[in-house]
Prior knowledge:
The structure holds 2 protein chains of 2 kinds. Chain A is α/β, with parallel strands linked by helices. Chain A has 29 helices and 26 strands. In chain A, strand 14 (447-450) and strand 15 form a beta hairpin. In chain A, helix 6 packs across helix 9 and helix 23 packs across helix 24 (659-670). The longest helix of chain A is centred in the N-terminal third of the chain and has 18 residues, at 74-91. Chains A and B meet through helix 26 and helix 29 of A and strand 1, helix 1, helix 2, strand 11 and strand 12 of B.
Amino acid sequence: MxxxxxxxxxxxxRRGWSLHAHQIAMLERAPDPALLLIAPTGGGKTLAGFxxxxxxxxxxxxxxxxxxxxxxxKALAADIRRNLSTPIAEMGLPIRVEDRTGDTxxxxxxxxxxDPPDILLTTPESLALLLxxxxxxxxxxxxxRVVVDEIHALADSKRGDQLMxxxxxxxxxxxxxxxxxxxxxIEDPAAMAHFLARHPDPCEILFADPGPDPNIAxxxxxxxxxxxxxxxxxxxxxxxxxxxxxxxxxxxxxxRAQAEIFFHNLWLANEDALAxxxxxxxLDRIQRRNVEAAMVAxxxxxxxxxxxxxxxxxxxxVDLVIQIGAPKNVKRLVQRIGRANHRYNAPSKxxxxxxxxxxxxxxxxxxxxxxARDLDGDPRGPGPRDVLCQQIMITACAGPFDADALFAxxxxxxxxxxxxxxxxxxxxxxVATGGYALRSYDRWQRLRQTGGLWHLRDPRTARQIRMNIGxxxxxxxxxxxxxxxMGGQPLGEVEEGFAATLxxxxxxxxxxxxxxxxxxxDMTVEVTRRADKPPRIATFMGTKFATxxxxxxxxxxxxxxxxxxxxxxxxxxxxxxxxERSQLPEPDRLLIESFPYKGREHAVIYGFAGRNxxxxxxxxxxxxxxxxxxxxxxxVATDYAMMAWGLNPLQDPAALFDAANLRAGFETWLAGxxxxxRTFRASAVISGLIDRTMQGQRKSGRQxxxxxxxxxxxxxxxxxxxxxxxxxxxxxxxxLVDFGRIEEMLARTAGRIDLRRLQTLSPLSAPLFxxxxxxxxxxxxxxxxxxxxxxxxxxxxxxxxxxARPKWRVGY
Amino acid sequence: MNSFAFTFGxxxxxxxxxxxxxxxxxxxxxxxxxxFGKAERIARLGGTLLPPYDTRxxxxxxxxxxxxxxxxxxxxxxxxFDDLGAGAALPDQExxxxxxxxxxxxxxxxxxxxxxxxxxxxxxxxxxxxLAGIVFRHVASMEMFEISGxxxxxxxxSLGGRQxxxxxxxxxxxxxxxxxxxxxxxxxxxxxxVLAGLMAPDALAVLTGTRACPMPMYRRKTAKRSA
Lengths: 812, 227
């Protein structure tokens, strides 16, 4: 199969289209067992992926499911279905295309299992669920191809690991399965091919023409950006001007909260009432759909958005992409720029808008990196074993299995190719018996072995296992809706922690509206439009982007210059001020600033070791601070610096950096910190130790559920070698990266520490105060503050003179 | 000492930072909602296989409390066992441990909704009991000077942007509600309407931790109390 059949040839000719070279190549290489296509956004990736399927199905000879298409977003699946319908209808192809996601109705899902379409569009989670049913082998019997779209996005998380295990399962059912991966531009194509391949089979890589260089620049504004702050409010007039000058503009933000604030400010300044919408993952689905529909119809001049728009949804006529805030990594920036101008051979146009002066430096460094086509990224670690535990349960749901056969199957998946049999057995044992040193569940095992095959002890548990499928961590969020008698319009979601701080009358921003908190009803936040106070900012858990190490190094090199002709005057002045008030970080010295601010002592360590290493350093140094009696309360890490705050000032930095001490304390200390507990919670849910809490199920009786921290503490105390604690350590270390990077930093600076004691925060430290992802330290300071806080509350309530009232007396 | 001492009826009681209630004059220690055997019960009912160490951890902390207070009388305020089956299925080692703690003490098991009948472990088994004008029962009723459990109260304090949640006692002039002592227990926020309806406007929440920290249970002027 090489040439395009005449039916297709004619159709393309009629439309005035011609195929790109890589689309033809995909057709020619359809028989390859696995193939990875790397093409820039707008390069016709999806058509390239589907063309062999359409050609194959054109004669109507195939029965049953032919191609499975997997995408990270439900919206993408729906979009693809629409896009495929045109060629299928116009060429009169005998092809049925359906999507299957969490939004598909039960009736339709059941019918799809009994009578699958030719092409099924779905997500990794829905595929995993399908594989858990006993009839999966029948449903997938005729399957020929699987197309993984936006594979670079899936490979970023555990969803990718789960998908590769699912493909291994599929390939056991249908050995002659052909895999196709579609990826945007990435830094390490070979690693992605290894990820996709069925081991040990090869996976070839096809590179599409990357197209002309993008037209990308920093936005010029009359007002300088502030020292710190993420809102970029200063740039609103300039951004509006750009929106006016273009057909459709996408305005990307790094976090949802920033997007909300910017959108609000944009509307306040939008005198021409240009049609501008907002789109992010915390908004209600219907609202998002309305914006998407308006966008496709060309009714919007601009959309303020976050990563929820990052993936390849067809956005019609976008001719400008604006990135607000520094692009945290070059790869993502390049992928975002690809949104502008879908005409493949025309350059994309993009503008960067730094939100503060530090970001000006970052933006200039990022522009240099883009020009040098210097992409960045961290290598993927081995496949996480919590996902493997879930896969074992999914397999057991579908029917009895042989352990050795399952091990062989699992190791055909790229991320698990190097998995040892022992590591696999530990997971199987955990799923079956709990894997505890104390063998107390012999009667209540989840899996039993009969005649050599493993199966569920109680088949009824399959339902519970299916409900827990997936690796996406939903933080506890509450729905927000307008309060009225009819139930009210849903607006979106806020974090439960944020909702807990609201008092009736408080106002906050959601979906670009200022709303007033009225009350909480049935776990729903009810709001009205009677907003009479300036809004507080809702805290949405947006994806936290880490600036790449490679960008950090570019920046450190820039700081070493005597002057910065490439930077705007205001940013040069700001760096000069840092030199005057404190000093600029240097590659072979370690700068530490110590200063009081808002009632807390702060210490900022400019390590420039990349976010992961700075995070590790933060955990280690605050642990030392606790030992030294500095009473640290928390810290935050960026790629460049780590800032800790507490009750007492840092005076002797050398005591923090005693390398032997740091290393010795590392392992033992690692066990007790907040990052470990957070990682444990995620792994405990994925591996099936605790049930995912379903929204709405927890209206009452919350005392029945208890914190996963309790499980972590209990397990650490009584069963420290338990496999789930091993998994937690493995996963936490992926985030914290090896200790080696810190040692490298210590070696580079070799004890040349400059401690600057300042009156207040320095120009360079100001942006740190707005960083997300603060890590609390639960030590002596917490107890002290808790006592102070409760005493203050007692005083507020007029119960301070407890001694005067005979009924109460504090302490004894 | 890190306890919170208060007068309740004619008694001087100590709310201990561990979540137990001590009545020194009577040599009495009161604990609530031990939920022994919870992990086993969840496994038995086909749920997940939680670390089976909750009972020994609860016993370990209970033993520390008995040692610290030298209590001669112990009142367990109900839900001592996660269900009656969990009481019966207690592994030998844990059963012996519990019996060792019970030996030489007047031990009273108050009935709870999880353990409405006697468990074969000795001690006295009662629906409720009264001592020196104070009533001990599992679920609060409207009686005067009543000590109860059941609700697992917890309170959240905001410490400059971050929140700390602790199990807590709820105490007003006529009613004391104990926090749950069992290891695998969660909590009900003390601003939940269920609890707000039970306690007087001047009620205190006494937080557990390294020190028992009292604070007003109702912190907002807008907080309403149903009659």
